[in-house]
Amino acid sequence: MKKDLHPTNYRPVVFKDMSNGDTFISRSCINTKETIEMDGETLPLIKLEISSTSHPFYTGKSKLVDTAGRVDKFMNRYGSRAKK
Questions:
Q1: Is the dihedral of CA 49, 24, 22, 65 positive or negative?
Q2: pLDDT band with cut points at 50, 70 and 90 for residue 65
Q3: Widest CA span of the chain, in angstroms?
């Protein structure tokens, strides 16, 4: 293995989802100036805009916006084929 290939500052980091306030600890070597107190120790803080706890795909709260009626039109045309 090559010497000095991996980063030396790989450490526990707190990731915080800013949309819902959810936090979790993982390991990373990303640089940050912010810190947070968690589990009795001070850890670096990385702020996220979206995570798996707030993303509509993972939470099951995604909405299908169909202003032109394309889904209904498709179901009317091809919906009866699925029943066979």
A1: positive
A2: low
A3: 64
- Decide: residue 48, CB within 10 A, 0-12 exposed, 13-18 middle, 19+ buried: middle
pLDDT, tens digit (0-9, with 9 covering 90-100), for 4-59: 887 888 899 999 998 888 999 999 999 999 999 988 999 999 998 888 787 766 66
Q: What is the pTM of this model?
A: 0.62
CB proximity list for 39: less than 8 A, separation 6 or greater: 25
Closest CA to 28 of 16, 41, 13: 13
Q: Which residues partner with 47 through β-bridges?
A: 16
Q: Give me 11's structure tokens.
A: 């450490």
| Phi, psi of 39, rounded to the nearest 5 degrees | 55, 35
| Structure token pair of residue 44 | 């670096």
d(CA 48, CA 28): 14
